[in-house]
Amino acid sequence: AQTVTQSQPEMSVQEAETVTLSCTYDTSESDYYLFWYKQPPSRQMILVIRQEAYKQQNATENRFSVNFQKAAKSFSLKISDSQLGDAAMYFCAYRNSGAGSYQLTFGKGTKLSVIP
Amino acid sequence: EPEVTQTPSHQVTQMGQEVILRCVPISNHLYFYWYRQILGQKVEFLVSFYNNEISEKSEIFDDQFSVERPDGSNFTLKIRSTKLEDSAMYFCASSEDVLLQYFGPGTRLTVL
Questions:
Q1: Beta-carbon separation of A50 and B45 below 8 A
Q2: Angle at Cα B39 formed by Cα B34 and Cα B42, nearest 5°?
Q3: pLDDT of res. A33
Q4: Are B83 and B76 in contact (CB under 8 A)?
Q5: B32 — contact with chain A (CB < 8 Å)?
Q6: Which of A44, A105, A107 sits opposite B106 (nearest CB)?
Q7: Lower CB density within 10 Å: C or N end of chain B?
Q8: β-pair type (A19-21, A74-79)
Q9: B60/B46 Cα distance (integer angstroms)
Q10: A111 to chain B: nearest residue by CA?
Q11: Sign (positive/negative) of CA torsion B64, A1, A110, A48?
């Protein structure tokens, strides 16, 4: 079974600074997808960024980028120029790419605070 | 922008009672999911649903749980006889294809 570990229960960052959230996972599959979801307080989870395991290039979405290290099974999220609206729970998630396997496996989350 | 909606936002019930949690997925989506998050723990997959049948379910999704798409818009999760350990946040999600899942805001279920 796949597992996802987020070792930082809480992080904080100064506004305009950069922060990196860690995620590691365990799988025996060679092809899969990785995601970062953001959950603001009392709001639904929103997809921030995704990475296909077969792609060597790290995904980027505006201020959000990932450092995907397949051999190390590591998938960290970097938030540049942090803004107050980035304060939220961040969940790392994994999904097999195989047909019929749609479930996401989540980490426990990292609570990010942004200090003005 | 279309969103997944869930009702109610908070449900309180007595142990042994049946509850139905409701979700309205995004209208053109074909795949539907339920997840739950017990306080302080991970979000856990319960079930996925496609073409009017369950496509995948976890060990958590035992005989006390059922899902249904009673009409063209709603997707429901029924818990037949609630237990104290069913207290959790229940999230519905939907996707147009199998890749990107869009989540609702959740229903907090409290079993007394």
A1: no
A2: 55
A3: 94
A4: no
A5: no
A6: A44
A7: N
A8: antiparallel
A9: 6
A10: B40
A11: negative
- Helix (H) / strand (E) containing A55: none
A interface toward B at CB cutoff 8 Å?
A: 4, 33, 37, 42-47, 50, 91, 100-109
Q: What local confidence, expressed as pLDDT, does residue A99 receive?
A: 73
Predicted confidence (pLDDT) per residue in A3-54, tens digit: 999 999 999 999 999 999 999 999 999 899 999 999 988 778 899 999 999 9
Nearest CA in chain B to A110: B42
DSSP A59: P
Residues B2-32 pLDDT 10s: 899 999 999 999 999 999 999 999 998 999 9
A103/B48 Cβ within 8 A: yes
pLDDT tens by residue, B32-64: 999 999 988 889 999 999 988 999 999 999 999
Residue pair B48/B55 in contact by the 8 Å Cβ criterion: yes
The encoded tokens of residue B60 equal: 């958590």
